[in-house]
Write a structure and sequence with these properties.
The complex is a heterodimer of chains A (115) and B (112). Chain A has 115 residues and is mainly beta. In chain A, strands 2, 4, 5, 6, 9, 10 and 11 form a seven-stranded mixed sheet that branches. Chain A has a four-stranded antiparallel sheet with strand order 1-3-8-7, with no helix packed on it. In chain B, the strands form two sheets. In chain B, strands 2, 4, 5, 9, 10 and 11 form a six-stranded mixed sheet that branches. Chain B has a five-stranded antiparallel sheet with strand order 1-3-8-7-6, with no helix packed on it. Chain B has 112 residues and is mainly β. Chain B contains no helices and eleven strands. Chain B is globular and about 40 Å long. The chains are: A mainly beta (115), B mainly beta (112). The interface between A and B is medium-sized, with 30 and 28 residues.
Chain lengths: 115, 112
């Protein structure tokens, strides 16, 4: 069974540009969540989607957005990039559930460098 | 406000001995906990979970203990192997929030 797939794996962008990251969940998983990991920090929750609906959003500015498609694939977008957005962006998927007791499985991540 | 804390940034253990990684939390609403292992340049790999209705869960060399009154959980790895050298994260979630709060990680080094 294929795991969570994230593309691209590595990318370099310039301040002020925007970026779109893509995530394909494990087959059958309908919940997709996104996390940001910066050097020295733990993973910070960005948002979670289930059946194309955002169910929760973390403490990030509005420049960070996401969406989920009917096939459960998800994208996140960061507009007007800042140097501080340089991070590893991780996508995770889980089986449908009530929001508790669901183990989330991560992809390899997308490394974003903003210069 | 750090709701999930891993107070030991690093830990070194001899091969074959027990590794104990600790995690403390402050939110009494957390009812599901996960442990992950992470190698550099890779995504976190799920290790083991525990629900708040249990106080112990075991999976091979990995055992997680939960002390709800102390708001503390620990991951035991026995016996430790050099391949266990990685950063370990604990994560906690509360029902209906659809998100996990992660600790900042503990770097485990298993010495051969």
């Amino acid at each position: 069974k294929a795991g969570v797939t994230q593309t691209p794996r590595y990318l370099i962008k310039t301040r002020g540009q925007q970026v779109t990251l893509s995530c394909s969940p494990i087959s059958g998983h309908r919940s997709v969540s996104w996390y940001q990991q910066t050097p020295g920090q733990g993973l910070q929750f960005l948002f979670e989607y289930f059946s194309e609906t955002q169910r929760n959003k973390g403490n990030f500015p509005g420049r960070f957005s996401g969406r989920q498609f009917s096939n459960s694939r998800s994208e996140m977008n960061v507009s007007t990039l800042e140097l501080g957005d340089s991070a590893l962006y991780l996508c995770a998927s889980s089986l449908p559930g009530t929001g508790t007791g669901n183990t989330i499985y991560f992809g390899e991540g997308s490394w974003l460098t903003v210069v | 406000d750090q709701q999930v804390k891993q107070n030991s940034p690093s830990l070194s253990v001899q091969e074959g001995r027990i590794s104990i990684l600790n995690c403390d939390y402050t939110n009494s609403m957390f009812d599901y906990f996960l442990w992950y292992k992470k190698y550099p340049a890779e995504g976190p790999t799920f290790l083991i979970s525990i629900s708040s209705i249990k106080d112990k869960n075991e999976d091979g060399r990995f055992t997680v203990f939960l002390n709800k009154s102390a708001k503390h959980l620990s991951l035991h790895i026995v016996p430790s192997q050099p391949g266990d050298s990685a950063v370990y994260f604990c994560a906690a979630s509360a029902s209906g929030t659809y998100k996990y709060i992660f600790g900042t990680g503990t770097r485990l080094k298993v010495l051969a």
